[in-house]
Structure formats: structure tokens, C-alpha cells
Sequence to fold (296 residues):
Amino acid sequence: MGICPGTKRWLTMMDNTANLQHYASPYYDPIKAHEYYMKNRELKERRSVTKLSDEGKKVWSYTKNEIKAEKKTKVEAEQEKKKQKTEEVRSNAKAMRERISSRLKELNEALSQRSSQKKKTIDERKKSDLDEIGAETEKKKQRVEAKKESEIEKLMSVPIPDGLSKEEKSKRVAERNEKIAKLRSDAKSEKEKLSNRSNSDKENVRNTATNRKQRVTEDTKAERTDNSSNASAERQQVSNDLKTAVAAAREAYKAAKESIDSTYEEIYQREFDRIAAEMPKVSKRKKSSKKSTKKK
Fold:
């Protein structure tokens, strides 16, 4: 008695189900595997699926896809880790550059304030020195003037005798006037010397103040240059550190990716070998035909 086609298909399905029960893997779900296989029948395999039975091909196709999905998740996690690390170091570098610029600005502002204060102090000292020179010169002139007036007064206080002749009397007056004129001339000359010395001293004070202010300007400029140079060096160091950190993150991702590739290559091969062992392709044996011997 023959078996009806429906019963035959049911027995075949039961046999396949029995075969699938031998293959247990976290990457394999028999129901989903069948659905996946039906959608992806034509696949280019790196591993030869000719070794597998038809059901084994279905199992391998689905299993491989599950492994690939898991691997992709881990690779994406490493990519995200690299991205976050890169963004972090770049953000830190940006903040560091901003701090360097802010500190440079503060240093230069403080430098400008110190420079202004130094110049103000120099100007105040100059004014004080000029006032002092002027006041001291004026006192000396007053003493010269007072001495002159005193000497003149002394000369004028000496009376000319009345018993002298008109000619002698005139002579005595002329001599006294000559002495007074000399006193006045000497006093004038002395005061001119004092004025000239005062002007010279004041000019020295002004020149000294100008030179001091010029040195302050030059020192301030040199310090600004040093500040800018130091800031530039710090920025370059930040840039170098950023490049190193980004390269390190890139290398870390590369190493992690290679490790994942290696690990999952082993998983691919292990799962494929298991499926190949449990669901090999059954070779059909050819029936050997016996040649009939003819009787001579």
C-alpha cells in the first residue's frame, strides 16, 4: 500500500525537525531561520555551502545573519566609543584653548595696567623733581638778590664826608655807583647761571623720565611677546595632545575592530563547522549496473 503525498511531506518535515534539534546555538532560531532563508536564498558564501544539506543551508544562512548582526552591534558600540572619546578630547582641547586665550588676555590687561601705573609714577616723580628744582632755584635767586641788596645797602650807608671837594665828592659817588653796578651785574649773572643750571637739571629730569617711560614701554612689549609666545606654545601643545589623543582613539578602535573581526571569524567558522557536522549533504550513491555476460 503506497503513502499519500500529504503524509510523505509530513514525515519529511518531522525528519528535518529531528535533525534541527541536534544543532543548538544562541544564534539560531529554527522558525526565524526558515523565514530568513526563504527571503535570502541566493547568497554568495565565503564558506562552501555545498557541504551542507538543504536544511543545513537554511540553518547556516540564518545563523550567519544573526552572528553578523551581533558583530555589527559590537562594532557600532566601538565606533560610538571612539566618537565619544574624540568629541571629549576635542571639547577639552577647545576649552583649554579658550582658557589659554582668557589667561593671555588677563595677563596683557594686567601688564597694561602695571605699565600705565609705572608711567604715571614716573610722570609724578618728574613733576615733583621739576617743582623741586624750580623752587630750589628760586630760593637761590632770592638769596643772591638779598645779598646784593644787603651789599648795596652797606655801600649806601657809608656817608661821603662833607669836607671833601666837589671833585673828590663826585669821585667818591662814582666809585660807589660803580661798586653798586658791579654788585647788580654779578647778581644778575649769578641768577642767569642759576636759571641755566635749573633748565639743564629740568631737561635731565625730563630726559630721564622719557627714557624710563621708554624702557617701561619696551619691557611691556617684551613681556607681551613672551606672553604670546608662551600662549602659542601652550596652544601647540594642546594641538599635539589632541592629535595624539585622536590617533590613540582611532588606534584603540582599530585594535578593537580587529579583535572583533578575529573573534567573530572564529565564531563563524565554529558555527559553520557544527552545522556542517550535524547537517552534511548526503551524497547519492550511483547504482552500479551489472553487465550481463553473454554465453558464447
